[in-house]
């Protein structure tokens, strides 16, 4: 693994995403490109291998706070703190279309639906909008949690959307996306409310089309629990109904701090970050592993079929590799990647990866950010921890 060096950004980076396609290529022609949005009111694209800026947008009217990427469409979507949404061509940064929310945004979610990709946006007032891409034409809007900021998670196959509001007595909802895209007049979208309260986190199982894991408070003793659901549809006299089946549930250990990060792996494993600890459970509650490799709290986690990455305020990144030869996958700690100097930086705040590189956002003490990139090398005949 080789370090590519920092890339200076004009302001504090709020979000980043790869806009290059996630293809595993080690033929010397690989090119990883990431986009960032930051408080300096610009969206920028960066060549990870070269460590150079590809393009930068003109100064926007307000600070950009979130983005979503469609690598196959070579499209980037941004939203600013006032709720103005824009699409950009990924290859040159040219603005394509815009759409204004009546209030600020609380969530932005790219959905790769089998028929047509679309964009979901939640406003701070609890309204969910479905928009076409790249034109940003309104398909539908739905009041989900009135006057409450809403979080959104689209399923891996784009068929379902999970909507929740933090620590509320209002149960989270699941929407069938086809009913958001093809609206029937005077008919509400197909949805159902999950029978849990005080939801704090959720994630999808990436190897299943409609398996959802939800972290919530247990109604009996208010302990944190993780419940897993399978989603489906059935025909009724009124059309289509959403069907939810609980398939597993377990209580988290009393000694565990409330997790602040949650990701799924495969079909049976959930990864939780609690403070500076990374813990793996099966959906039935069997603890598979626990890692305490960081010296300060973990701020970000990235999970794919090959690796797990964690970023921390201790100014380091950790790289773990999956071994799937056993009944349940085993995670092995492999790399410890250091950032810059604690004199200038307050730690890593984000980490993401594709098949050939890793990018981390290092927050500077003066309120700006830099990108640090690391690229994998292939060493044939070596162990599983070397790329």
Automatic annotation (TrEMBL):
**Statement: the UniProt record of this protein carries the keyword Cytoplasm:** no
Swiss-Prot/TrEMBL keywords = Repeat, WD repeat
Q: Does the keyword Repeat apply?
A: yes
Kindly give the InterPro entries that the UniProt entry links to this protein: WD40/YVTN_repeat-like_dom_sf (IPR015943), WD40_repeat_dom_sf (IPR036322), WDR55/POC1 (IPR050505)
Q: Which PANTHER family match?
A: F-BOX_WD REPEAT-CONTAINING PROTEIN 12, WD REPEAT-CONTAINING PROTEIN 55
The name of this protein is F-box/WD repeat-containing protein 12-like isoform X5
* The species this protein was found in: Vulpes vulpes (Red fox)
Taxonomy, top ranks, is:
Eukaryota, Metazoa, Chordata, Craniata, Vertebrata
Query: What is the gene name?
Result: LOC112908646
């Amino acid at each position: 693994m080789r370090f590519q060096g920092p890339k200076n950004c004009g302001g504090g980076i709020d979000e980043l995403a790869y806009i290059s396609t996630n293809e595993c290529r080690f033929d010397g022609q690989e090119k990883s490109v990431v986009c960032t949005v930051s408080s300096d009111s610009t969206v920028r694209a960066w060549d990870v291998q070269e460590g150079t800026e590809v393009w930068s947008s003109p100064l926007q009217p307000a600070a950009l706070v979130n983005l979503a990427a469609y690598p196959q469409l070579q499209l980037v979507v941004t939203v600013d703190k006032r709720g103005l949404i824009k699409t950009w061509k990924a290859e040159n940064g040219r603005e394509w279309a815009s759409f204004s929310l009546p209030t600020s945004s609380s969530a932005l979610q790219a959905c790769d639906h089998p028929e047509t990709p679309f964009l979901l946006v939640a406003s701070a007032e609890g309204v969910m909008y479905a928009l076409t891409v790249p034109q940003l034409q309104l398909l539908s809007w739905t009041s989900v949690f009135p006057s409450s900021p809403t979080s959104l998670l689209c399923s891996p196959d784009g068929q379902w959307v999970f909507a929740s509001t933090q620590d509320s007595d209002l149960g989270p909802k699941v929407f069938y996306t086809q009913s958001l895209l093809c609206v029937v007049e005077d008919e509400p979208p197909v949805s159902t409310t999950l029978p849990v309260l005080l939801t704090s986190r959720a994630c999808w199982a990436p190897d299943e089309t409609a398996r959802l894991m939800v972290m919530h408070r247990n109604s009996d003793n208010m302990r944190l629990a993780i419940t897993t659901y399978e989603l489906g549809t059935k025909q009724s006299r009124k059309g289509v109904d959403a069907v939810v089946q609980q398939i597993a549930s377990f209580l988290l250990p009393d000694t565990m701090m409330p997790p602040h990060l949650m990701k799924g792996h495969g079909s049976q494993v959930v990864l939780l970050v609690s403070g500076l600890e990374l813990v793996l459970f099966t959906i039935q509650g069997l603890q598979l592993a626990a890692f305490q490799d960081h010296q300060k709290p973990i701020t970000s986690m990235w999970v794919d079929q090959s690796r797990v990455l964690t970023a921390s305020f201790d100014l380091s990144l950790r790289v773990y590799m999956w071994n799937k030869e056993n009944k349940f996958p085993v995670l092995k700690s492999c790399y410890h990647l250091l950032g810059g100097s604690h004199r200038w930086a307050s730690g890593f705040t984000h980490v993401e990866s594709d098949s050939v590189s890793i990018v981390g956002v290092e927050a500077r003490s003066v309120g700006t950010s830099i990108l640090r990139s690391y690229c994998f090398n292939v060493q044939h005949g070596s162990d599983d921890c070397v790329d």
